[in-house]
Design a protein that fits this description.
The chain is mainly alpha-helical and 482 residues long. The chain has helices at 12-35, 45-68, 70-96, 109-118, 130-153, 157-183, 188-192, 209-234, 241-252, 257-272, 276-296, 299-322, 326-333, 341-356, 367-374, 389-397, 399-422, 427-443, 453-468. The chain is globular and about 85 Å long.
Length: 482
């Protein structure tokens, strides 16, 4: 039988080139995911610039692949046009914030005040700092590009599995790397800059331990979900305790050993960071995944999931105890009233920013520029982050554009939920998308990890991967099959 979607003979060489480009693009994507955390989370101008170049090269390869199978990409676009449109509206508004030709009533008064002080006219804009807003808009666009690449490349089930394995391996590698450099008495910061780093807690390739906690938390979610899913297939629960113990040991020291090691490493690194927000957010992500998995299961499988959840809680408790009490003490600090005065100051300034420009915003990424105008208390620090991505995002973009972005993510989560409860296979990916979103949403309430390119990129990959496997594989017309 001849497949109507197979290109004509005259296009055969282009099709071969496209398939090769697709394979190279896929492995380059994995290389980008592996590289992004190493240069301080790619949160320096030079490392961010290099990451942008790599992503652009990946997109060039993707274009060759897409040209060889245009019907596939149109089908992909048909399935994901709603979140793409919502994200595009947010990006368009961020660009408008940097333009000088907006209506005069939209321009922030700071531009007019500055012009009167220097005695020279200035072309004002909505954003307090055009460069920062343009830079942050470029980052958001890159995350959308990575999510789209992952989505289109991972529609193939084999690629999706390889990418998930790669994410787990990369997360486990950086966990080991973090312990190695910590034991050696150095930090990643000192590998790139001569000035000494001031933080001495486990931060791996990142500068801040909180950002590393979010990164390792996502890796731990992926490893634990994969471990439990595979264990559910190999461990026999319904044939007595002896058979249960035997199959568990066979799994733990056999096919499940790599995933078990990866889970222990990533969770250990998460605990060792001492990040309260990162630990609680990751625990909530795991709990959400466990609740949904138990709700979807029946009979013996539900018993297995409950048992796995109990073992997981005991393992986490053991790792917290082994950590020497650092995380335990920091968690107890949360019970002290007004334990985070600095964050409260930042949150108060953020809410005043939103109230002053709820529709237009002050410019994406301009919290540091805006803070002195909205602060009511002087502190001896550079206040460049609000320690709440929700408030800072809304203050920068304005509520309409921020809500448009959040609606795009909500649409994806809704698709994951539907796929998890309706699909018979590959529900693991949808579950990870739900868990990862729960993690970053909770941690973003008290921190700014999603502003780190490596963290945001990894999250975008997980979202693209989850969306790719939220549709029936029978609907996939991959370039490989073509």
């Amino acid at each position: 039988m001849v497949n109507a979607d197979i290109p004509e003979a005259s296009w055969l060489s282009v099709g071969d080139l496209g398939r090769s480009a697709g394979d190279i693009c896929f492995w380059l994507l994995i290389a980008i995911v592996a590289w992004a955390p190493f240069p301080l989370g790619s949160n320096r101008e030079w490392s961010w610039g290099l990451l942008t170049i790599l992503v652009s090269l990946c997109w060039l390869l993707w274009a060759f692949w897409a040209a060889a199978a245009p019907k596939v990409q149109w089908e992909n676009l048909r399935r994901a046009w709603i979140p793409l449109l919502l994200a595009a509206l947010t990006l368009i508004w961020a660009v408008i914030q940097t333009l000088p030709g907006v209506p005069g009533g939209w321009i922030h008064p700071l531009w007019t005040s500055t012009a009167s002080i220097i005695g020279h006219p200035i072309a004002g804009a909505i954003s307090l700092n055009r460069w920062r807003t343009a830079n942050e808009a470029g980052k958001l666009a890159t995350y959308v590009a990575i999510a789209w690449l992952t989505f289109t490349l991972s529609r193939d089930e084999g690629r999706a599995s390889r990418l998930l394995n790669a994410l787990i391996i990369i997360g486990a590698f950086y966990a080991v790397y973090a312990f190695v450099i910590a034991l050696s008495g150095t930090q990643q910061f000192r590998l790139f800059y001569a000035m000494p780093a001031t933080l001495d807690l486990l931060s791996g390739p990142f500068v801040q331990r909180n950002n590393f906690a979010t990164y390792e938390g996502m890796a731990a979610l992926a490893a634990a979900a994969r471990l439990v899913a595979l264990g559910g297939e190999r461990i026999q629960v319904s044939k007595g305790f002896r058979r249960l113990a035997l199959t568990t040991l066979q799994f733990a020291f056999g096919s499940g050993a790599p995933l078990l090691i990866a889970t222990i490493l990533t969770v250990s690194a998460l605990v060792a960071t001492g990040s309260r927000g990162g630990f609680i957010a990751a625990f909530i992500g795991l709990a959400v995944m466990a609740i949904f998995a138990a709700a979807r299961s029946r009979g013996e499988k539900r018993k297995f999931l409950i048992s796995a959840a109990v073992v997981g809680v005991l393992l986490i408790g053991l790792l917290v105890w082994i950590s020497g009490g650092l995380l335990s003490e920091r968690l107890l600090d949360l019970t002290v009233p007004n334990a985070e005065p600095l964050r409260r100051i930042e949150w108060g300034a953020s809410t005043r920013m939103i109230a002053s420009a709820p529709w237009l915003g002050l410019g994406l990424g301009t919290f540091q520029d805006a803070y002195p105008m909205y602060a009511i208390q002087i502190v001896p620090y550079i206040m460049d982050k609000a320690h709440n991505d929700w408030l800072e995002f809304a203050a920068g973009l304005g509520l309409p554009a921020a809500i448009s972005w959040w609606l795009a993510i909500s649409w994806l989560v809704g698709k994951f939920l539907r796929a998890f409860f309706t699909r018979r296979k590959n529900r693991l990916y949808s579950l990870m998308g739900i868990g990862a979103t729960s993690l970053v949403a909770m941690h973003s309430l008290v921190d700014f990890s999603l502003q780190m390119p490596a963290v945001a990129l990894t999250y975008a990959v997980l979202m693209g991967l989850a969306l790719a496997q939220s549709f029936s594989s029978r609907a996939v017309i991959s370039s490989g099959s073509a």
